[in-house]
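Q: Now give one record:
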Amino acid sequence: MSLRAAVAVAATIAAGLVMAEPAQARPDVVGFRGDYSPGTIVVKTNERRLYLVVDQGRAVRYPVGVGRAGKQWAGTTRIDGKYTNPAWSPPAEVRRDKPSMPSVIPGGSPRNPMGVAAMTLSGGEYAIHGTNAPGSVGGFVSYGCIRMLNADISDLFQRVSVGTPVVVTR
Protein backbone atom coordinates (compact mmCIF):
# COMPACT_ATOMS: atom_id res chain seq x y z
CA MET A 1 0.00 0.00 0.00
CA SER A 2 1.35 3.40 -0.92
CA LEU A 3 1.95 6.05 1.73
CA ARG A 4 -0.79 8.20 0.19
CA ALA A 5 -3.31 5.33 0.38
CA ALA A 6 -2.30 4.52 3.97
CA VAL A 7 -2.77 8.16 5.01
CA ALA A 8 -6.18 8.25 3.28
CA VAL A 9 -7.30 5.05 5.07
CA ALA A 10 -6.06 6.34 8.44
CA ALA A 11 -7.83 9.67 7.93
CA THR A 12 -11.07 7.90 6.99
CA ILE A 13 -10.91 5.69 10.09
CA ALA A 14 -10.12 8.65 12.35
CA ALA A 15 -13.00 10.68 10.90
CA GLY A 16 -15.33 7.73 11.46
CA LEU A 17 -14.27 7.45 15.09
CA VAL A 18 -14.79 11.17 15.70
CA MET A 19 -18.18 11.17 13.96
CA ALA A 20 -19.29 7.91 15.62
CA GLU A 21 -19.32 9.44 19.08
CA PRO A 22 -22.38 11.71 19.36
CA ALA A 23 -22.61 14.31 22.10
CA GLN A 24 -23.89 12.87 25.36
CA ALA A 25 -26.45 14.55 27.61
CA ARG A 26 -24.61 15.48 30.76
CA PRO A 27 -24.45 19.14 31.64
CA ASP A 28 -21.30 19.96 33.55
CA VAL A 29 -20.62 22.77 36.00
CA VAL A 30 -17.41 24.36 34.76
CA GLY A 31 -15.23 27.39 35.36
CA PHE A 32 -16.40 30.30 33.23
CA ARG A 33 -14.94 33.73 32.50
CA GLY A 34 -16.89 36.70 31.31
CA ASP A 35 -18.81 39.70 32.50
CA TYR A 36 -22.27 38.10 32.53
CA SER A 37 -24.92 38.17 35.22
CA PRO A 38 -26.02 34.91 36.83
CA GLY A 39 -28.88 33.40 34.86
CA THR A 40 -27.55 34.57 31.47
CA ILE A 41 -27.30 32.03 28.65
CA VAL A 42 -24.10 32.40 26.63
CA VAL A 43 -23.72 30.47 23.36
CA LYS A 44 -20.16 30.23 22.05
CA THR A 45 -20.74 29.27 18.43
CA ASN A 46 -17.12 28.32 17.64
CA GLU A 47 -17.01 26.03 20.70
CA ARG A 48 -20.47 24.62 19.96
CA ARG A 49 -21.29 25.03 23.64
CA LEU A 50 -24.05 26.76 25.58
CA TYR A 51 -23.32 28.08 29.06
CA LEU A 52 -25.85 29.01 31.72
CA VAL A 53 -24.01 31.37 34.07
CA VAL A 54 -24.49 30.20 37.67
CA ASP A 55 -22.38 32.81 39.43
CA GLN A 56 -19.16 34.73 38.92
CA GLY A 57 -16.70 32.14 37.62
CA ARG A 58 -19.07 29.15 37.14
CA ALA A 59 -21.56 27.99 34.52
CA VAL A 60 -23.50 24.91 33.50
CA ARG A 61 -22.17 23.78 30.11
CA TYR A 62 -24.07 21.90 27.40
CA PRO A 63 -23.01 20.73 23.91
CA VAL A 64 -25.04 22.31 21.10
CA GLY A 65 -25.44 22.31 17.35
CA VAL A 66 -25.22 25.78 15.81
CA GLY A 67 -25.70 27.53 12.48
CA ARG A 68 -23.80 26.15 9.55
CA ALA A 69 -21.62 28.37 7.35
CA GLY A 70 -23.55 31.42 6.25
CA LYS A 71 -26.33 30.79 8.80
CA GLN A 72 -24.55 31.87 11.97
CA TRP A 73 -25.38 35.02 13.86
CA ALA A 74 -24.20 36.82 16.96
CA GLY A 75 -25.91 39.23 19.29
CA THR A 76 -27.95 39.68 22.43
CA THR A 77 -31.60 38.70 22.82
CA ARG A 78 -34.00 37.21 25.37
CA ILE A 79 -36.13 34.13 25.66
CA ASP A 80 -39.65 35.22 24.70
CA GLY A 81 -41.48 31.89 24.88
CA LYS A 82 -41.18 28.36 26.28
CA TYR A 83 -42.95 25.39 24.69
CA THR A 84 -43.04 21.65 25.29
CA ASN A 85 -43.50 19.35 22.28
CA PRO A 86 -43.91 22.35 19.96
CA ALA A 87 -45.30 22.11 16.47
CA TRP A 88 -42.90 23.54 13.89
CA SER A 89 -43.52 25.68 10.84
CA PRO A 90 -40.42 25.87 8.67
CA PRO A 91 -39.25 29.43 7.99
CA ALA A 92 -39.33 30.68 4.39
CA GLU A 93 -35.60 30.04 3.91
CA VAL A 94 -35.98 26.38 4.89
CA ARG A 95 -39.03 26.02 2.63
CA ARG A 96 -37.04 27.48 -0.30
CA ASP A 97 -34.28 24.91 0.24
CA LYS A 98 -36.71 22.04 0.87
CA PRO A 99 -39.93 22.83 -1.04
CA SER A 100 -41.50 19.43 -0.34
CA MET A 101 -41.47 20.08 3.41
CA PRO A 102 -44.95 20.39 4.96
CA SER A 103 -46.03 23.80 6.23
CA VAL A 104 -46.47 22.45 9.78
CA ILE A 105 -44.95 19.43 11.51
CA PRO A 106 -46.93 18.50 14.64
CA GLY A 107 -45.27 18.42 18.05
CA GLY A 108 -44.22 14.93 19.08
CA SER A 109 -43.75 13.79 15.48
CA PRO A 110 -40.45 11.97 14.88
CA ARG A 111 -40.02 14.30 11.86
CA ASN A 112 -40.30 17.43 14.03
CA PRO A 113 -36.81 18.96 14.35
CA MET A 114 -37.70 20.89 17.54
CA GLY A 115 -37.46 17.87 19.83
CA VAL A 116 -39.20 17.79 23.22
CA ALA A 117 -38.99 21.52 24.02
CA ALA A 118 -38.16 24.89 22.52
CA MET A 119 -37.46 28.36 23.83
CA THR A 120 -38.02 31.04 21.22
CA LEU A 121 -35.77 34.06 21.03
CA SER A 122 -37.11 37.59 20.64
CA GLY A 123 -36.31 39.57 17.55
CA GLY A 124 -36.25 36.75 15.02
CA GLU A 125 -37.22 33.29 14.04
CA TYR A 126 -34.58 31.47 16.07
CA ALA A 127 -34.93 29.18 19.06
CA ILE A 128 -32.97 27.09 21.50
CA HIS A 129 -34.54 23.66 21.08
CA GLY A 130 -34.19 19.90 21.33
CA THR A 131 -33.69 17.68 18.31
CA ASN A 132 -34.88 14.51 16.66
CA ALA A 133 -31.33 14.04 15.32
CA PRO A 134 -29.05 13.74 18.39
CA GLY A 135 -26.00 13.00 16.22
CA SER A 136 -26.19 16.57 14.91
CA VAL A 137 -25.46 18.10 18.32
CA GLY A 138 -21.89 19.34 18.37
CA GLY A 139 -21.84 20.38 14.72
CA PHE A 140 -22.44 23.36 12.47
CA VAL A 141 -25.83 22.09 11.33
CA SER A 142 -28.74 24.50 11.64
CA TYR A 143 -30.24 27.53 9.92
CA GLY A 144 -29.29 29.60 12.99
CA CYS A 145 -31.13 27.88 15.83
CA ILE A 146 -29.29 26.44 18.81
CA ARG A 147 -29.85 22.68 18.87
CA MET A 148 -29.58 20.64 22.08
CA LEU A 149 -30.00 17.03 23.09
CA ASN A 150 -33.54 16.45 24.35
CA ALA A 151 -32.33 15.64 27.87
CA ASP A 152 -30.30 18.86 27.91
CA ILE A 153 -33.07 21.14 26.64
CA SER A 154 -35.35 19.59 29.28
CA ASP A 155 -32.78 20.42 31.97
CA LEU A 156 -32.18 23.98 30.72
CA PHE A 157 -35.93 24.54 30.25
CA GLN A 158 -36.44 23.96 33.99
CA ARG A 159 -33.60 26.32 34.97
CA VAL A 160 -34.59 29.45 33.00
CA SER A 161 -37.67 31.57 32.43
CA VAL A 162 -39.14 33.87 29.80
CA GLY A 163 -37.03 37.03 29.79
CA THR A 164 -33.73 35.23 30.38
CA PRO A 165 -30.95 37.09 28.52
CA VAL A 166 -29.18 35.18 25.75
CA VAL A 167 -25.81 36.22 24.31
CA VAL A 168 -24.56 34.49 21.15
CA THR A 169 -20.88 34.94 20.25
CA ARG A 170 -18.87 33.56 17.39
About this structure: The chain has a mean pLDDT of 88. Residues 40 and 135 are 26 Å apart (CA to CA). The longest strand covers residues 75-84.
